[in-house]
Amino acid sequence: MRVFITGGMGFVGRNLTRVLSANGHEVTVLDRSIQKGRPVAEGVSRVEGDSTQSGPWQEELAEHNVVINLAGASIFQRWNSETKKAIRDSRILTTRNVVEALATRKGKETHFFSTDAVGYYGFHGDEVLDENNPPGTDWLAQVGAEWEAEALKARDHGARVVITRFGLVMGRNGGVLGQLVSLFKRYLGTRLGGGNQWFSWIHEQDLANIFLFLLERKDIEGPVNCTAPNPVRNKELTRILADVLGKPVIMPFAPGFALRLILGEFANIIIEGQRVVPKRLLDSGFEFKFPALKEALQHLLAS
């Protein structure tokens, strides 16, 4: 298939682009600045453009029968009015522009995969959450609901729409794992807050395999949780990562009030967490290569 990816130069996008290309798909990524852009996998094309603005890139997108929308400013920063606007606009405006481009494909087979995150569900303590749960009421959850609503408008143009809700992506070359490993190697790793909050995660290889699976399973539409089937509590993540790295946890836990002082409203995301399971993937027969965190980390951190 011909696949167009927004956000394809980011942490998740780089791995997904490589895997799709290696599996015979013709991939084009949108790059804000080709001259300054990082290298892409062999055989992958690039087109220059800003996904939050209309432009010639939309005409290029319309030549592809699969669109994967990964674009969005990172939420892993202290939030204020400016960063909140950037987080929302990067998601909503990009998706609106993508759907506008897809309108020209009406009558043609089109598959639109739009991203969200498990933050969509809000905070529910120990409750197990699947694709049937409604959005939460906090700010990030409401942005997620708005983001998904924009993506679903592509159905009006005849597109199949899949909403991939990501857990915390564990990968070799970036993301949260790299930051955690750096802390643990300096003996600064510790549990966050009470440590009982749930973290829904996924190995980058399983995430890429999910997209390959969904490209084949054209009967699957709507929300799909892209998380491993075994979420863990923060204190368990801390213990497992320390064990895999062979680094003892000697730092006292980071209290919630201190995290809120440092990170502001964003701290609630890591203090509260979500216990999300991939019900639709499991019901559809998808097999995870790394369903358990310890084996996933051992694979990613092997020298």
Topology:
Layout: E1 2-6, H1 11-22, E2 26-31, E3 45-48, H2 57-61, E4 66-69, H3 81-102, E5 111-117, E6 128-129, H4 139-152, E7 160-166, E8 168-170, H5 175-185, E9 198-199, E10 201-203, H6 204-216, E11 222-226, E12 232-233, H7 234-245, H8 256-263, H9 267-272, E13 275-276, H10 279-283, H11 293-301
Parallel strand pairs: 1-2, 1-4, 2-3, 4-5, 5-7, 6-13, 7-11, 8-10
Antiparallel strand pairs: 9-12
Helix pairs in contact: 1-6, 3-4, 7-11
Structure characterization notes:
With 303 residues, this protein is an alpha/beta fold. The protein is 39% helix and 17% strand. The strands form four sheets. Strands 3-2-1-4-5-7-11 form a seven-stranded parallel β-sheet, with helices on both faces. The chain is globular.
Short key terms for the protein model shown above:
seven-stranded parallel beta sheet; two-stranded parallel ribbon; globular; 39% helix; alpha/beta; 303 residues
What's this model, at a glance?
With 303 residues, the protein is of the alpha/beta class. The protein contains eleven helices and 13 strands.
Uncertain ranges: none
The strand count comes to 13
Number of helical segments with 4 or more residues: 11
What class would the helix/strand composition place it in?
A: alpha/beta
Distance between the termini: 35 Å
Shape: globular
**Residue-averaged pLDDT, rounded?**
94
Largest sheet: 7 strands, parallel
Radius of gyration, in Å, reads 19 Å
Q: What is the percentage of strand-forming residues?
A: 15-25%
Helix content: 25-40%
Element-by-element helix/strand order: EHEEHEHEEHEEHEEHEEHHHEHH
Q: Biggest sheet: strands side by side, in what order?
A: 3-2-1-4-5-7-11
